[in-house]
Amino acid sequence: MGWEIYGYLGIHSRSFFDKKHENLSFEELCKAPASAISGISESDAANLKKAFGVDIIQELAENKYLIATMFVTVLAALARILGGPL
Q1: Half-sphere exposure of residue 54: CA atoms within 13 angstroms, side-chain side
Q2: How many CB atoms sit inside 10 A of residue 62's CB?
Q3: CB-CB contact of 85 with 79 (8 Å)
């Protein structure tokens, strides 16, 4: 299964990546540079490398600080749904 899973979810996933990288497999995308993500320039990627030590998409996704921000965001949304602090 590949990109078609996103179609089921109503997501146009190929718009997440630059044209040069949009037809790569998931495994290939994991190894693609962070600049393969739409909106991340080469300069932005250099800043990500400097700040967080990440070069490729997989390293960005597995970065402990990124994961922590997603965790906090999800918990905040859950607290809003439940109507109080967790």
Answers
A1: 25
A2: 12
A3: yes
Distance from the first to the final alpha carbon of the chain: 37
Cα gap 66→41, rounded to integer Å: 18
Each residue of 25-43: pLDDT tens digit? 889 999 999 999 999 999 9
Ranges of each domain in the chain: 4-82
Helix or strand or coil: residue 58?
Answer: helix
Q: What are the φ and ψ backbone dihedral angles of 80, each rounded to 5 degrees?
A: -65, -40
Instruction: Decide if 31 contacts 58 (C-beta within 8 A).
Output: yes
Query: How does pLDDT run across 7-26, given as a tens digit for each residue?
Result: 555 555 567 888 888 888 88
